């Protein structure tokens, strides 16, 4: 017959196991979040760089398309 001490030990072991699994997932999520934040930062830098290049190209295009003499 199973005694209440054996049941308590089994429940305690199950509880510790579930806490260990939860702690592992928490660490995994933190690592994943950190990687995604770093990736997002590099992508944002690239977006800002492309915006700057686009504005420079637009300025050059406007300069080239302006007529030399607007009264002509």
Features:
mainly alpha
| Straight-line N-to-C gap | 108 Å
What is the strand tally?
A: 0
**Rg:** 31 Å
The helix count comes to: 1
* β-sheet strand percentage: under 5%
Query: What pattern of helices and strands is seen along the backbone?
Result: H
Integer average pLDDT: 88
Binned, the helix content reads: over 70%
Q: Show unreliable segments.
A: none
Structural class: mainly alpha
The main sheet comes to:
none
Global outline? rod-shaped
Explain what you see:
By secondary structure, this protein is an all-alpha fold. Helix content is 86%, strand content 0%. The longest helix has 62 residues, at 4-65. It is rod-shaped and about 105 Å long. It starts with a helix and ends in a 7-residue tail after the last helix. The mean pLDDT is 88.
Walk me through the topology:
Elements: H1 4-65
TL;DR of this structure?
86% of the residues lie in helices and 0% in strands. It is mostly helical and 72 residues long.
């Amino acid at each position: 017959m199973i005694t209440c001490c054996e049941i308590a030990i089994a429940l305690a072991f199950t509880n510790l196991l579930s806490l260990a699994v939860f702690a592992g997932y928490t660490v995994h999520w933190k690592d994943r979040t950190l990687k995604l934040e770093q990736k997002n930062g590099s992508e944002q830098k690239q977006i800002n760089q492309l915006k700057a290049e686009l504005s420079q190209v637009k300025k050059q295009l406007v300069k080239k398309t302006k007529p030399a003499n607007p009264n002509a």
